[in-house]
Amino acid sequence: MGLMRGRGFSYNPGTMSDKKIESVVIVGSGPAGWTAAIYAARANLRPLVIPGRAKGKDLLPGGQLMLTTEVENYPGFPKGVLGPEMMQLFFEQALRFGTRVVTDEGIKTGAELSTGLYTPFPDVAAVDLSGRPFKVKADSGFECQAQALIIATGAKANWLGLPNEMRLALAGGGVSACAVCDGALPMYRGQELGVVGGGDSAIEEATYLTKFASKVHLIHRRDQLRASKIMQERALKNPKIQPQWNKTVVDVLGEEKISGVRMRDTVSGKESELKLGGLFMAIGHTPITEFLNGQLELNEKGYIKLQDPFRSTTSVEGVFAAGDVADSVYRQAITASGMGCKAAIDAERWLAEQGVE
Ligand code: NAP
């Protein structure tokens, strides 16, 4: 993939030259971003985090965990923890060690951030990676320069875009975009569940959900799956998986909790209803990389390409990546945290090599 250097970045050189150069700027505020901040802060790098703005209802500061209810698979929380609560804890832990955060009103630290993750934060708008220090611009007008940059902007799960789908997802009403995160919750046990999609994720999630569900309806818009043949065969042999071929979901039914879906047949156009106790979207993820404007090498799936799979280095020296923006495979809070830790350590060592404190 061809790289473009700093295209589309315009900043005010007059004000920029007056600004202090940051050691480490972290973009993103999910588990990867806050873990990177905790490690960088404890290394006395005084990291600056640009958390990201709430956009509609599907992208929030704190990342995808803000859309999750109970998190039961993150070690250290034997009784589980709510996704938003967990991100607030990450945030407070990062602040405790001196992490600074860019809000719509400028840079703030610990005590000034009493509204927590619900503070209005800006989104990163553009970066210029053509020379060091790197230049970073937020959509609030905030600009800074950074010796090292950690990209932890995540990937957003794709949703169908139906109003009732998002309403129930936000209310913990049985609509989710992550079966591994939510599928084991008591509310789904013994229920008939639906999974939307026909790729490997849909098959994997449908198979996973058969452990808890009485039946899993695999709702796919075509009559052929996109998933790998071996996974298809395994899933279609599973007596608990019921394919719903050539169907799209046109509405999600239920007030406080999902009661079913209305589907449309993509061949006949006929509509029908299916009773469900839960619905899981598995229609792909989109990594958040637009602001990079082609300046970092991406892999064939559009995720940031790590130069060494065990590290966080990217195609630009001094720029590190962590979490789902560089991981199309695992996409878990714990793996994102681990990557954030690696990115902070890589950045710290790289800065030391450059003689930057
Ligand atoms: P994917 O392969 O892009 O599949 C997305 C599925 O969602 C497709 O079947 C697609 O239908 C459907 N879809 C997309 N938009 C839709 C919409 N608006 N309405 C209804 N259906 C829609 O995504 P993925 O399954 O998340 O996989 C992503 C990558 O990770 C893939 O490369 C996959 O191989 C890999 N992966 C691998 C494993 C594994 O090996 N264990 C597990 C998970 C993921 P169409 O088929 O009609 O386009």
Key descriptive features of the protein:
357 residues, alpha/beta, FAD/NAD(P)-binding domain, 2 domains, eight-stranded mixed beta sheet, five-stranded parallel beta sheet, 8 helices, 24% strand, disordered N terminus, binds NADP nicotinamide-adenine-dinucleotide phosphate
Structure characterization notes:
The protein is of the alpha/beta class and 357 residues long. The chain has two domains: 4-156 and 285-353, FAD/NAD(P)-binding domain; 159-281, FAD/NAD(P)-binding domain (3-Layer(bba) Sandwich), CATH 3.50.50.60. The protein has helices at 13-16, 31-42, 83-96, 163-170, 179-182, 200-209, 229-237, 333-354, and strands spanning 21-27, 48-50, 70-71, 81-82, 100-103, 106-108, 124-128, 134-138, 143-151, 155-157, 175-176, 192-196, 215-219, 241-244, 247-253, 260-265, 271-275, 278-281, 285-287, 319-321. Strands 1, 2, 5, 6, 7, 8, 9 and 20 form an eight-stranded mixed sheet that branches. Helix 2 runs parallel beside helix 3 (83-96) and helix 2 packs parallel to helix 8. The longest helix is centred in the C-terminal third of the chain and has 22 residues, at 333-354. The protein is elongated. The relative contact order is 0.18. Residues 1-8 and 11-18 have low confidence and may be disordered. Bound molecules: NADP nicotinamide-adenine-dinucleotide phosphate. NADP nicotinamide-adenine-dinucleotide phosphate (NAP) binds next to helix 6.
